[in-house]
Design goal:
This protein has about 350 residues and is mostly beta strands. It has a single domain, classed as Glycosyl hydrolase domain, family 43 (Tachylectin-2, Chain A). It is about 0% helix and about 45% strand. The strands form five sheets. Strands 12, 13, 14, 15, 16 and 17 form a six-stranded antiparallel β-sheet that branches. Strands 2, 3, 4, 5 and 6 form a five-stranded antiparallel β-sheet that branches. Strands 7, 8, 9, 10 and 11 form a five-stranded antiparallel β-sheet that branches. β2 and β3 form a beta hairpin. The protein is globular and about 55 Å long. About 40% of the residues are buried.
Length: about 350
């Protein structure tokens, strides 16, 4: 049983930055040597108008396209990254440094290719891992839509993988049979979380897919670290024993209810694996525990319910999403953990300090 002793709200993070960055979501963290790479999704540069929605400047919907040059926004980047010195989360996240171009401006870690129209194609962050001298980042590619529920509507094209170096932070996409989409629409989007188990040296990759009822389910793949770039080397959990197979179509769900983002780590305090995710998008943040990476996973247990401090009316359902734990920030052998989430109107990572019982 996951027991919560107390939770401290440490507020919005990365707001005090030298790049006029006024909003970003995602916020996956990837441990490196002595520091942590943080990987973000859509990032806005410019100014905010106090009391005004980022998505409804002047009371008008800004639309699904690239926001560069619109309203008070100078640039919009699909994804960005920063480096954080190794630290606990106590007191908030400090002394971070964004990864920039030669002119000192924020830049995407995974840029769009020439044929990818920035008005319609987005490359959003998933999780990643360092293996030897290489860094691997998973991503999800989406196409924006004009019609559909506000404030943003899109369809998933699929997920893929890039590989790069911390020497220059340049990343190249991994292709399979001529496509950068390794897991297309209809398959789980690996890897929203990736976990290295050193006991037998497997990488466990967690992916999310929507079922026919609209409910999001989590699935599991595994691959040897040396084979991470080889799609044919991935195996998928197809039975509870566990049983593994090479057909993603036979994969079975682990649990349900998360949006596209989550975290999985081994927590020494619990002596168990801990998964953290938003439960749907209504503000609930939950945790699940398991004795092994494949489970059996407990039912979702409430960690925190987000209380929205900005109460201005908006013309759509309020979105609270992207909850995940950052194991590199943990303290007291995992008794104190740190979780970020995104509230779409605030549109900065929000940090919680959670004391486990």
């Amino acid at each position: 049983m996951l027991k919560i002793k107390r939770v401290h709200d440490l507020g919005l993070q990365f707001t005090d930055n030298p790049h006029r960055m006024v909003g970003q979501d995602g916020a996956f963290s990837i441990p490196l040597n002595g520091k942590t790479l943080w990987f973000f999704g859509d990032t806005l540069i410019g100014t905010r108008v106090p009391g005004e929605s980022l998505w409804y400047p002047g009371g008008q919907w800004i639309g699904p396209g690239d926001m560069t040059g619109k309203a008070t926004y100078e640039r919009m980047l699909n994804n960005t990254g920063l480096l954080l010195p190794r630290q606990t989360g106590k007191g908030g996240l400090k002394n971070f440094r964004y990864i920039c171009d030669e002119q000192g401006q924020l830049r995407p870690l995974i840029p769009l290719l020439g044929h990818e129209d920035p008005d319609w194609i987005r490359l959003w962050c998933l999780h990643g891992i360092r293996i030897g001298k290489k860094i691997y980042l998973y991503f999800i590619k989406v196409q924006m839509l004009v019609d559909g529920p506000l404030p943003a509507n899109f369809e998933v094209i699929g997920s893929g993988l890039v590989v790069g170096s911390p020497d220059d932070w340049q990343f190249l996409r991994v292709f399979h049979r001529g496509s950068d989409i390794l897991w297309p629409v209809g398959q789980p989007h690996f890897a929203t979380a990736i976990l290295r188990d050193t006991r037998e040296d497997w990488l466990y990759a967690y992916g999310v897919k929507k079922d026919e009822t609209g409910r999001q389910n989590c699935y599991l793949a595994r691959v040897r670290p040396t084979d991470i770039e080889q799609l044919g080397a991935y195996e998928y959990l197809i039975g509870r024993k566990p049983a593994w197979g090479d057909s993603v179509a036979e994969a079975i769900p682990l649990f349900e209810g998360m949006p596209n983002e989550m975290s999985v780590s081994f927590n020494p305090w619990l002596d168990a694996y801990l998964a953290v995710h938003s439960y749907e998008t209504d503000g609930r943040i939950v945790g699940r525990t398991a004795p092994e990476p494949w489970g059996p996973w407990s039912e979702a247990q409430l960690i925190w319910t987000v209380q929205v401090s900005n109460g201005r009316p908006i013309p759509y359902q309020r979105l609270i999403y992207a909850a995940k734990e950052h194991p590199s920030l943990a303290d007291e052998s995992g008794q104190i953990i740190y979780i970020t989430y995104i509230e779409f109107e605030e549109y900065y990572p929000h940090l919680l300090e959670v004391h486990l019982g």
